[in-house]
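Sat 14:20. Reprocessing the chain from the morning session after the first attempt stalled halfway. Input below, unchanged.
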Amino acid sequence: MKYISKALAGCALAGSALLAMTSCAAAPAHETATAQLQPDYPSYATIQDLAKRSTLVVEVTLGASSPDKLLPKYEGDDSETNPLAGTTEKPDRAAGAVPITVFAATVNTVYLGEVKPGEVINVGQLGGTMDGTEYTVTGSRPLQEGQTVILFLATYPDAPASILGGDAGVFTQVGDEYQSHAEQPLTITLDELKTL
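Finished this time. Tokens:
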């Protein structure tokens, strides 16, 4: 379990406090229950906007994955970063838990940031298994072990790196350029990546 501030959760998971979770009917004992997450990610109109918010832009090969959860820290008196600020309500970190899948990602190429090729970084993607329920993200493509992708990431000292904008921060090669997995994909060339 990783503890993060609401500010980090907001940036990392783009409004995780606003997630809408809808569960299916109770699953029989031999089946996993399922639920859908509908995050409200920030949108990025250009690659430059996405890069400005990134602390790392890297090509990685995704290794082993494991389920985890982010637990909010209810700190401070700013209602933007702490939804309980100014109330007498007692924080329940478990109730604010957000399921993520964490990948051990081997860095192949660094386009922006302070890591080196060959390093392994932990990258979290919203969704996965938590407390016996499989959470999927509406409209998102889950990452896969063994996949090679370019990621636009925000990094934190106490949590896995987070993909910016959900699928907007995940790029795969399509012909001579790289295209994000977003509904309205952004594209970038290798030459443009080298100038970030």
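The chain has one domain: 2-193.
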